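subagent[fold] <- orchestrator: predict structure for attached chain, return tokens only, no commentary.
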Amino acid sequence: MNRFLILVSFLLLISAIPLRANTTTDPVIGMDDPPCFEGCPIPNFIPVSGALGTSFTFNADGSGGGITFFRVDPSGPGFSTLDIETPVGYVPDSVNCTSSTAPTGTPPFNNCLVRNLNGVTDIYFSNIVLLTALLTTTDPGLPAGDEFAVNLNDITCNPFTSTSCDTSGAGGWGVGEAFTAFPNVPEPIKPLIPEPSTGSLLALGVLGLLAAKNKKKFGEVLRSL
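subagent[fold] -> orchestrator:
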């Protein structure tokens, strides 16, 4: 029984780890869009769909940063919004998010909202109406066929035009931290990825089913720990 309690405690500890915020370096995430649709001098674009209900993933590198390059499916649709989530609960004010284009032009998104949704960090890129003296405009988002990059490095620069952008540079995110991106979704009020406690709950459920199915074998498993 004591070993069983130790095992349960270990699973609960694992579920609590993603909730710990980064207390050393404030992380940075940038959405970079080149001033071209074809022929940008960056290889290995990852094709992604803008269809509602789809998602794509990427990870920070071994230094907690890195730049990943994507291309929106030319058959459409483009991205009007992009929601990026990671299962680590950061303090929203500690996350610096930017959206840029260079050397001139309009960034794909003019608004970025960072929130902590039930232990998941949610980064929502969108466009808001800008009222000026001459006209009312919104930024274009990411059209079908457009190339873009997600920049997790601490130093913010446009990797399409600057040779100083190291695609494997250091960042404030965790080593290999996982991100999931959802195009064209409304601003979420709860996480679109499983909450951090879900994994441990599933594990406890499996253990319970195993115990109910064969108490003898379950006891043997516990004694072997």
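orchestrator: received. Logging for downstream: The two ends are 12 Å apart (CA to CA). The first strand starts at residue 28 and ends at 33.
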